[in-house]
Amino acid sequence: MEILTNPAPTAFTWLRALFLIGLGIFFRQPVMSGICFTLAALPFFTAKGVAFDIPNRRYRHFSKIGGLRIGRWEQLPSVSRVVAKYFSQLGTSGKPGRMRTDREEYLVVMLSVEGSATGIIVERLALEAKSEALELAEDLARPLGIPEVYVPLQEAAHGVSV
């Protein structure tokens, strides 16, 4: 079972590809043009994902280039359920004196490891992608033979998200 976790090419990816193709045409040199065309096409032939080998109880996070998948297989621990839940964290960026802290919010689909506070994160999705998160959780739970659980965002009495 294989799940690709990166989104479809964005407008920026298309613009970058067009720029590199234009640069390749501008150079009019076979080597430089070839490099530009290769760099322009590369994002459309690469992907990231997670693969599961259920009979052998192992998984891997991989990078896919063309048809080649690069990633190390790891033993799949005893998984009790697939969880789709809200997650947030504070991200800090900038230079000293101009630091900025933003709240990053998304839905996480993860495998909950039995008897542990840790889990295996399979995918991070935008908050608006609830139906995709639930569908992914169901697609993971079915072959593993475990239940899927959705933990919704809850508002505490004092207005803080938990």
How is this structure best summarized?
The protein is of the alpha+beta class and 162 residues long. The chain has three helices and nine strands.
What is the rounded distance between the termini? 33 Å
Number of E-type strands: 9
Derived from helix and strand composition plus strand pairing, the structural class reads alpha+beta
How many domains make up the coordinates? 2
Beta-strand percentage? Answer: 35-45%
Q: Helix content range of the residues, please?
A: 25-40%
Please provide the ordered H/E string of secondary-structure elements. EHHEEEEEEEHE
Q: Average pLDDT, to the nearest integer? A: 78
Largest sheet: 5 strands, antiparallel
Low-confidence stretches: 156-160
Number of helices: 3
- Globally, the shape reads globular
Radius of gyration: 20 Å
Architecture overview:
The protein is built from three helices and nine strands. By secondary structure, it is an alpha+beta fold. The protein folds into two domains: 69 residues, no CATH class; 75 residues, no CATH class. The strands form two sheets. Strands 1, 2, 3, 4 and 5 form a five-stranded antiparallel sheet that branches. Strand 3 and strand 4 form a beta hairpin. Helix 1 packs antiparallel against helix 2.
Outline the fold blueprint.
Blueprint: E1 2-4, H1 11-27, H2 30-41, E2 46-53, E3 58-65, E4 68-70, E5 74-75, E6 79-93, E7 100-113, E8 119-125, H3 130-144, E9 148-151
Parallel strand pairs: 6-9
Antiparallel strand pairs: 1-2, 2-3, 3-4, 3-5, 6-7, 7-8
